[in-house]
Amino acid sequence: MAVKLGRQTWAPGRIPVIVQTGTVVGPIEGEGPLREWFDRVYTDPVAGERSFEQAEKEMMLNACYTALHKAGKTPTDVDFFLAGDLLNQIITSGFAALSLQIPFLGLYGACSTAAESLAVAAALVDAGCAGLVLCAVSSHNSTAERQYRYPTEYGSFRKPTAQGTVTGAGAALVAAEGNGPRITHVTVGVVEDYGIKDPFNLGAAMAPAAATTLARHFADTGRSPDYYDLIVTGDLGSFGHRLMLDLVAEKGGFDLTKNSQDCGVMIYDAERQDVHAGGSGCACSAVVVFGYLYRQMVAGNLRRLLLCATGALHSPTSVQQGEDIPVIAHAVSLEM
Amino acid sequence: MAVKLGRQTWAPGRIPVIVQTGTVVGPIEGEGPLREWFDRVYTDPVAGERSFEQAEKEMMLNACYTALHKAGKTPTDVDFFLAGDLLNQIITSGFAALSLQIPFLGLYGACSTAAESLAVAAALVDAGCAGLVLCAVSSHNSTAERQYRYPTEYGSFRKPTAQGTVTGAGAALVAAEGNGPRITHVTVGVVEDYGIKDPFNLGAAMAPAAATTLARHFADTGRSPDYYDLIVTGDLGSFGHRLMLDLVAEKGGFDLTKNSQDCGVMIYDAERQDVHAGGSGCACSAVVVFGYLYRQMVAGNLRRLLLCATGALHSPTSVQQGEDIPVIAHAVSLEM
Q: Which of A129, B9, B69, B279 is the most interior residue, by most CB within 10 Å?
């Protein structure tokens, strides 16, 4: 039975464990500093498929099968498949679920979906509804950019604040028992609106959501930021991350400058790669956390990690109708 | 602690109760046979807003506030808001969550989302993560038809098998305690593909998914169809519902002809209204179940109801790329 800590936060009673992960990335991510921590780097962004959409599905499936294989499991061992992506009708997840034949619950939280999937998996395991849950998210630069902004072929100029959608997929197996990082706390975010309408500056839109959810997490758990070895935001990018640091200091008096990083910054080498403000997309926090950081935890280099995954609920339709871009952030505490 | 009954089905340990509901519909649904069972009928499909998208958000919010008001609750009493709709990036739900300021988990299960939201709410309540969860779904004929098929203004001819997206929204308050129909069993569906590519014949696409999930539910629970006073499918429409009856008889030897109906058939009067094969959309099963059937249960006219909500994971992108339309169905058992 979970313990409620305020309205947004709970601590699972039957503590779920991330027993295994799988991560795959595209060629640009494979040239970044975290290359060696991913299970597979695709050198072809179409992954040998007929379309970018099919390539994204292939990547999500590959991440899932990798996690299953490393855990010595097959799809029939898994109770539920929780997945989401950035495409309309989350088709990557739907078609992946068709291949996997695991009972499926589709999620949409934009780039916060990795954390959302861990939250729902934690509840299913805690309630005894599931012994093993497979969580997966994906994004693909060529499917997302053309759906949300412009097709790559259009060659549009991008602002320095623009982030690029990460190509890749991350999967995590959440179990009722086993070894690995444990999901000790979940803080579910509230949707907020900070007046941003610019899809080329989503880091600024999401930074206040991350600051609000982090402040709520610290208040609900009674923990100070120092409790964590690392507080990693989902995909604020370089501008958004700096803005978040200022906001948590201003609003809550928290100093996160020593132990906070951002997945959107970590995934690329800004000096060497032409990536503007960094990475974004569902896969961004998933591949960094399930790839690099998960292995650091298992190796004993990192004991307490707070993932605060951010999502811009950006819709071309609503932006064209003059609406702001609402944002959300969920925090999940992972501890060895 | 939930009891697992096979891989797809569980019986909650701490049994969640639907303590209140709210339903609103558009003008065409308001001319149908269930008119008096909805909390509000909009005579204007734009609901006084500037766009159909904003009208859909207004409808979802109205359904939510109606459920809250009838229960004597405010948004601050609610732990989590679980919502989904048919629009890209589920913007109706995202903007409703922004207004409600309730911690939000976004779902996507196409027209099966009402059942999906009850499933996740049941797990959250059962695990002790939540005392009160607000579930909501919506659809709007004028937002969905133009996104998935053709804008209404185009005046395209429609096949007899075509269903029309229901305009409306349904909300349900799921609580750890209280009076009302209890969620006694959940059967989560598997995504399947029956080779249908025609978005004007989604009933045929979804019928086998409903048949499979129903057969799985009966096998897992050991119940026969006779156990239920009514087995109601989400939105198969008249052709799809007949096909489902044949399939469950063929596959499982189950006779559902006596106690099965379909929300897509029930919501309109096929004799009097020009509705082709019936209604569809997230709101279809939500307004029929949370409006009409919920009240029948509370009034004691119906004791055991099995909702089998069906979803066609239809994407214009994947259909244009030559893919089939995958389908899913989730079953939720409601008992007084």
A: B279
What is the spatial distance between Cα B111 and Cα B199, in angstroms, rounded to a whole number? 13
Closest Cα partner for A116 from A247, A279, A286, A275? A286
User: Which pLDDT value is given to residue A198?
Assistant: 86
Tell me which CATH code domain B3-175 carries: 3.40.47.40
Residue A72's region, left for phi above 0, alpha for psi from -120 to 50, else beta, is left
Domain B182-335 in the same topology as domain B3-175: yes
Q: What is the pLDDT of residue A56?
A: 98
Model confidence at B151, pLDDT cuts 50, 70, 90, reads confident
Q: What is the pLDDT of residue A157?
A: 78
Q: Looking at residue A44, what is its pLDDT?
A: 95
pLDDT digits (tens, 9 = 90+) for A195-212: 888 888 889 899 999 999
- Total-model pTM: 0.97
Please give the Cα distance from B8 to B53 (Å, whole number): 35
| Contact (CB, 8 A) for A143 and A52 | yes
> Sorting pLDDT into bands at 50, 70 and 90, what band is B331?
very high
Element (H, E) at A189: none
Domain map (residue ranges) of chain A: 3-175, 182-335
3-state SS assignment for residue A239:
helix
| Residue A110: closest C-alpha in chain B | B89
Rounded Cα distance between B270 and B242, Å, is: 15
Of B207, B255, B191, B247, the closest CA to residue B228 belongs to B255
Between CA B319 and CA B280 the distance in angstroms is 19
A51 closest CB neighbour out of B102, B130, B321? B321
Segment B75-118, tens digit of pLDDT: 999 999 999 999 999 999 999 999 999 999 999 999 999 999 99
Q: Please tell me the predicted confidence (pLDDT) of residue B242.
A: 96
Reported as a single tens digit per residue, the pLDDT across B11-56 is 999 999 999 999 999 999 999 999 999 999 999 999 999 999 999 9
**By the 8 A CB rule, do A284 and A139 touch?**
yes
Task: Tell me the two tokens of residue A306.
Answer: 């707070």
The domain made up of A182-335 has a fold known as Peroxisomal Thiolase; Chain A, domain 1 (3.40.47)
What is residue B254's three-state secondary structure?
coil
What CA–CA distance (Å, rounded) separates A256 from A233? 11
Where would I find the beta strands (DSSP E) of chain B? 3-5, 9-11, 17-25, 40-41, 80-85, 104-106, 132-139, 164-165, 168-175, 182-187, 230-233, 260-262, 279-280, 304-312, 327-335
Indicate which of B14, B15, B105, B183 best probes the interface with A, i.e. most A CBs within 10 Å of its own CB: B105
How close A31 gets to chain B, by Cα (Å)? 30
Give the span between the Cα atoms of B300 and B302, in whole angstroms.
5
Q: Do the Cβ atoms of A31 and A270 come closer than 8 Å?
A: no
ipTM value: 0.97
